[in-house]
Amino acid sequence: MVRRLSAAGHLDSRRRPIRPAGARRGHGPGTLACPPGTAGPSGGPAVPGGQYAGLLAFDLFGLDATTARDWLLRQITTIAAHPAVDLVPPPLPPSPSTTQPDTGAERDTAAAGADVEASAAPAATRADQPHRGFPDRPASPPPRRTPVVLGTPQLVATLRQERGHPLAVTFSPAAPLVVTAGTDTCVHLWQLPFPDPPRLAATVGYGRRINQEWARVVTFSPDGHTLAAAGDAGTTVLWRLTATRPQPLLALTGHRGHIHDLDFSPGGTLLATAGDDRAVLLWDLADPDVPTRAAILAGHRAPVRAVAFSPDGTLLATAAEDRTVTLWDLANPTHPAATVTLTGARGPLHTVAFSPDGDTLAVAGRDRVVRLYSVAEPTRERQIAAFGEHRRAVHAVAFSPDGHLLATASADRTVTVRILTDPDNPGPPLRLAAHHGAVHAVAFAPDSRLLATASADRTTALWDLFPDEPAPAPSPT
């Protein structure tokens, strides 16, 4: 049973029939279905067992032949029940980042391939679980196909504010744009026309400066068309991005006190906000003209400081000053159910983030320790790693979109970046002496190469984490 929000803002349910093994989807010549026990494409390995044959139907429109073949072979390797000893992974094409500048067509092709993998692999590992997410989730960024080696990050630009200092920073998923918000009660939009230096494109007000209504958090919707900011005014303001400047869309009220964090669901139909009133409000934005409050999550005993949706939209994580993280099942968005409470922290929590594959949760706060939890089984608590290299409170954690890196920002004026391809065996931290004040926020660009850090020293720094790789192609003017 799959529930989703309709365009009118109501919940409806649709029962999807189970496709029999070996059945062929009706998408035309761009699909492939392998009967049980037959060889894979181009003479690849056989697929053992008929129960997996139905999972080999993929929509291949938009993929060139080489990319499609590679992805299909990888899926056969992934879903094989008991792979043979001689099952060899297929050769992968060279990474665009190490051979030539990335182009829009290549990004689209890679994203399409990543979407095929994201839709097929979980079906094999969790075939006994119904899909509870929203069907309109965007494709994940393509993973790096070469081993990640961190060199010496290079500072490429510094964004300075005349008043106040930034508390939040985020990248647009659809345009060369970075947005900051902070104690000047404003939201600043910066164009990134590399190789030219960044330039301030627009500034919009969030709160009243006379009341010191700081903008504490800012984020984009998954499609990049909507910008949301929240903070001390107790309201969440949404803007529609246009070619000239952001246009006010709507304001959401309901919290009593400051709002500390917000996050869009992967499909963009839900928005979660967390505040001083110990509550998390879940907003239904399926119809932006008529937003409705879908649910109120009231399980914490102290202000809620952070919220994050899982990449598939089935879970919501909330972190609070009561030293706990709660995972909520969103099978029914109007009645979320708490599945587990993580209690390992020894101080108030400030930040939480899911890894792109949805299996790992990073949590950090005032006790200076970054903890990693496995949430592959969201009904039990299992800590897999902990880092304590920071000397003061950790304000922010962020996974890179390709899933290979984890960045942390601290009040000790430093930022750390580490390789986290295998969460059970994390790499050593690379410390960036980034600023002369506490670092409040950190964010990765969609390509996982550019890192932004926002600090109390009134600056936002942009770092190239892989300066030895070829520079990206100049953005079109």
3D architecture notes:
Helices cover 9% and strands 36% of the residues. The chain has helices at 65-79, 96-99, 104-125; strands spanning 2-5, 11-14, 154-160, 166-171, 177-182, 186-191, 199-205, 215-220, 226-231, 235-240, 247-253, 259-264, 270-275, 280-284, 292-297, 304-309, 315-320, 325-329, 337-342, 349-354, 360-365, 370-374, 383-387, 394-399, 405-410, 415-419, 430-432, 439-444, 450-455, 459-464.
Major sheet summary line:
4 strands, antiparallel
Q: Please state the CA-atom Rg, rounded to the nearest Å.
A: 22 Å
Number of helices: 3
- Placed side by side, the strands forming the largest sheet appear as 3-30-29-28
Mean pLDDT across the residues is 77
Q: Judging from the principal axes of the Cα atoms, what is the shape?
A: globular
Q: Which structural class best describes the helix and strand composition?
A: mainly beta
Helix content: under 10%
Question: What is the CA–CA distance across the termini?
Answer: 47 Å
Q: Number of DSSP strands?
A: 30
Q: pLDDT under 50 segments (min length 5)?
A: 1-62, 77-145
User: In percent terms, what proportion of residues is strand?
Assistant: 35-45%
